[in-house]
């Protein structure tokens, strides 16, 4: 047979090698396109301003709920950690703590630590990032940091320059930032952190926007949504015909709670302003299917659902993840006047629940401690006369509007300047208020 001048023969071995190389190239390209984050570190702002309210709810409360919901969707293959700042001591720029080391996903632990965070002190953004970077340098794989903050660094540091410095040292990580209710210089700094960290910046002004911003951030990291996968499996299961009557409620594995008051109002939403759906009688036992701060989402055996405040119920099953299930009580209020240059007020509690503390410059000046959903123990005096160098008297009162709280007011000696500190001793269940003479102090909420 005569060959065409431009025809040539291909060696079968060469063709095989060529196909193998093409396959490897294509496979490598696909795998690179699918690379996602291996390690994720959340850094949470717990400075005092996170106690401010948006639409009636504290900013920290909004973050707790939305971050909790998002963590439940993260896959078990992810390694995750948690860092917080400003959650223990007032006025302390070194108040940064690694609450959960980067380790295989433990959603229950992360949620428990997040729900225990109480806004208290300074905005130590730079130190939080630096501390996280010490852990990042030892991690394998791709690492991302998600910073949720409502203000700029208040400790005279430049977090943008710090992130650039860490990047220059070869520490491999991306910083994504969600600015929660920020404007002006604060937003400029937070967006600058994201730019320096080669990450995304998202602005959120309320709960809805925060939820969307967090979802966008997680999506940007390429992390698969465990919840969507489980929903797909559930959809397949629903297509299987069932012999069970549609009116028969499913079996629930949630904790059971029992109404301990004479009558309990069940509402459409977790708010005292929400409409009432129905009422329960004392002794009614229901299942808890969700929880938002002090509110329980309950379900009856007949399928009805609604929201009610947790103080109306006692537990049938022990929930180890929340201190609020115990009826909160101040069992004693003590004073320690022996410390040189300072005086202490010690609140002895039955469970760990730090109060909100602020100073009022009046005549006489006052320190106010609000213990939410708390009662005064039957053996605890509601009025304590002190007449010491700094403290005149301590008085308590129960307030129910807008929310239930036990307010403790410490009246101070006038015509002096004061500095306040407070320490929370979680194991002892003590809150210690320290009062000492210092420069003029004002910290009104």
UniProtKB/TrEMBL annotation:
Q: Where is the composition biased (Polar residues)?
A: 240-250
Task: List every stretch annotated Disordered.
Answer: 223-256
What InterPro entries does its record include?
Answer: AMIN_dom, SH3-like_bac-type, VWF_A, vWFA_dom_sf
SH3b domain boundaries: 254-316
Which protein is depicted?
von Willebrand factor A-like and SH3 domains-containing protein
At the top level of its lineage, which domain of life is listed?
Bacteria
Under the heading SMART domains, the entry gives: SH3b (SM00287), VWA (SM00327)
Q: Name one Pfam family in it.
A: VWA
Q: Where is the composition biased (Basic and acidic residues)?
A: 223-238
Q: Which residues form the VWFA domain?
A: 39-221
């Amino acid at each position: 047979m005569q060959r065409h001048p431009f025809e040539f023969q291909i060696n079968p071995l060469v063709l095989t090698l060529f196909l193998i190389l093409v396959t490897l190239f294509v496979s490598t390209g696909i795998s690179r396109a699918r690379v996602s984050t291996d390690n994720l570190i959340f850094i949470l702002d717990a400075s005092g301003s996170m106690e401010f309210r948006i639409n009636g709810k504290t900013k920290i409360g909004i973050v707790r709920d939305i971050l909790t919901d998002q963590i439940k969707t993260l896959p078990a293959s992810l390694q995750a950690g948690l860092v917080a700042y400003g959650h223990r001591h007032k006025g302390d720029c070194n108040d940064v703590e690694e609450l959960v080391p980067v380790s295989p996903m433990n959603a229950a632990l992360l949620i428990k630590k997040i729900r225990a965070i109480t806004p208290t002190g300074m905005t130590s953004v730079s130190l939080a990032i630096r501390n996280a970077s010490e852990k990042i340098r030892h991690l394998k794989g791709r690492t991302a940091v998600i910073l949720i903050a409502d203000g700029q660094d208040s400790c005279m540091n430049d977090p943008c320059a710090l992130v650039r410095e860490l990047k220059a040292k070869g520490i491999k990580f991306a910083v994504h930032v969600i600015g929660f209710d920020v404007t002006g210089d604060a937003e400029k700094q937070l967006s600058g952190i994201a730019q320096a960290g080669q990450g995304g910046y998202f602005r959120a002004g309320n709960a809805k926007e925060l939820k969307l911003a967090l979802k966008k951030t997680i999506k940007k990291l390429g992390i698969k949504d465990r919840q969507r996968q489980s929903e797909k499996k559930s959809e397949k299961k629903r297509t299987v015909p069932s012999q069970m009557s549609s009116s028969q409620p499913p079996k629930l594995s949630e904790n059971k709670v029992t109404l301990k008051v004479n009558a309990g109002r069940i509402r459409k939403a977790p708010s005292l302003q929400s409409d009432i759906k129905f009422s329960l009688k004392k002794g009614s036992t229901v299942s808890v299917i969700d929880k938002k701060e002090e509110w329980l989402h309950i379900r009856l055996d007949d399928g009805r659902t609604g929201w009610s405040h947790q103080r109306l119920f006692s537990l049938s099953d022990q929930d180890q993840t929340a201190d609020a299930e115990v009826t909160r009580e101040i069992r004693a209020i003590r004073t320690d006047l022996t410390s040189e240059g300072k005086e202490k007020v010690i609140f002895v509690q039955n469970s760990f629940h730090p109060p909100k503390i602020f100073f009022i410059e009046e005549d006489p000046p006052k320190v106010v401690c609000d213990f939410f959903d708390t009662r005064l123990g039957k053996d605890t005096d509601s009025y304590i006369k002190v007449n010491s160098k700094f403290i005149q008297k301590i008085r308590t009162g129960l307030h129910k509007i807008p929310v239930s709280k036990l307010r403790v007011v410490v009246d101070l000696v006038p015509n002096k300047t004061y500095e306040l500190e407070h320490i929370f001793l979680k194991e002892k269940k003590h809150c210690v208020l320290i009062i000492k003479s210092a420069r003029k102090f004002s910290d009104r909420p």
